[in-house]
Amino acid sequence: MQKHYLTKAIFATACLLTFTGMASSEDLVVSQPDPELLDVVPVWPKRVVVNVPVTDILMLDPTEGKASSSHQKRMTQALFSERLEASEESQGWYHVTTFEQSQTNGNKMTIPIEGWVLADNTLEVPHFDEASITVISPKAKLFSAASSGGGMTPLSMGTQMPADNFKWGWWTVHQPDGSSAFTNESDVSALSERRAIRGSDLRKEVVHTGMLLIGTPYLEGGRSYPCMSSILQEFGVDEGGMIELIFRTFGMHVPRTSQGLYDLSVKLRQEPCAGDLLFLADVVTGEIRHVMLIVHDDLLLEASEEVKAVHTRSASEMLGKPIHRFKSGDGVPNIPKYVIYFGTYIS
Predict the structure, then answer these.
(1) Among 10, 17, 23, 80, whose CB has the most other CB atoms within 10 angstroms?
(2) CATH number of the domain where residue 243 is located
(3) What does DSSP assign to residue 239?
(4) What does R_g of the chain's alpha carbons equal in angstroms?
């Protein structure tokens, strides 16, 4: 890299001397860039896409040994065909910026999530293809042929992929390596159709999609449905990952973190509906500590670290009274360290 920059500097100096008359073009011999050097100099940043069902994105450079366990390092997960920008490489790991996951900073501004991903779990591409279908089933798979008899790859709910040529109940999926694979129409939906769902219909579908996640393991930093236990990769969701994954199946890009979900939501004073969000905030600092999906007035869906799974629970038992009896900012009788807030992403 330094030699290449030096060559450019020599060339610029030669041009200047010739222009000012201090030397003629015949007097100057400018070395050309070494082709072999240019071949090995990496060009950053790189466009990469995930080429495995799911991969962890770690907070710290894993080659520096700053974290003591994997769950402390995991910041989030990226799904098959998800787009990333790699800015550097360190011992087989890329430092990446996500295009499809966000959080908020102290000023409540949206910022992308960054972290480290195994380079082997991604593939460099010249450009990003626009996704056209999304996985809506917990049983979705990619097949090597338009039948269930070929080799297959499991897919997490929320996976979005470029696809076309729908025929005989199968979509043709364009994989990151340029090859084609196939997925059954019953497991996916066109993003254009999902984005067209509005109002009360969207509320019903959001709750229905959320209920499909019941039993999914709790995983700190998790953002994937456990589509196959034999894959050597942990699957699961945390509270923010669960909510983001649900809305992602509708082509909606909401923040990945609980705090971000609150910051960018439309705030509700009272009487939230099914599909809206209930937040628990620290009574002292005001920071959001937990988020749950409202199923109905006395039922909540949450990814629970205590239960170690996604499950439903009674609002009355957890909070001390039904949801309709709360207003945003109220204290929680059964959990005095929290106050309640409501927000929504459904208009």
Answers:
(1) 80
(2) 3.90.1720.10
(3) H
(4) 25
Cβ neighbours, 10 Å, residue 287: 10
* pTM (predicted TM-score): 0.85
Q: Within a domain: residue 232?
A: yes
Instruction: Write the single-letter amino acid at 327.
Output: K
Tokens in use for 162? 């470029």
330, 340 contact by CB (below 8 A): yes
Q: How many domains does the chain contain in total?
A: 2
3-class secondary-structure state, position 224? strand
Q: Could you tell me if residue 182 is inside a domain?
A: no
* Cα dihedral 171→174→179→181 (10° resolution): -30
pLDDT per residue, tens digit, the chain (347 aa), is 433 433 344 334 444 444 445 444 444 444 555 655 555 566 899 999 999 999 999 998 787 765 444 445 899 999 999 999 999 999 999 999 999 999 999 899 999 999 999 999 999 999 999 999 999 998 899 998 876 666 688 999 999 999 998 888 999 999 999 999 999 999 999 999 999 999 999 999 999 999 999 999 999 999 998 765 445 578 999 999 999 999 999 999 999 999 999 999 999 999 999 999 999 999 999 999 999 999 999 999 999 999 999 999 999 999 999 999 999 999 999 999 999 999 999 99
- The answer to the question of residue 231 being in a domain is yes
276, 291, 243, 257: which is closest to 346 by C-alpha? 276
* Domain around 36: 2-40
CA 40 vs CA 6, 34, 312: distances in Å:
16, 10, 54
Q: The tokens 């470029």 sit on which residue? A: 162
Does a structural domain hold residue 141? no
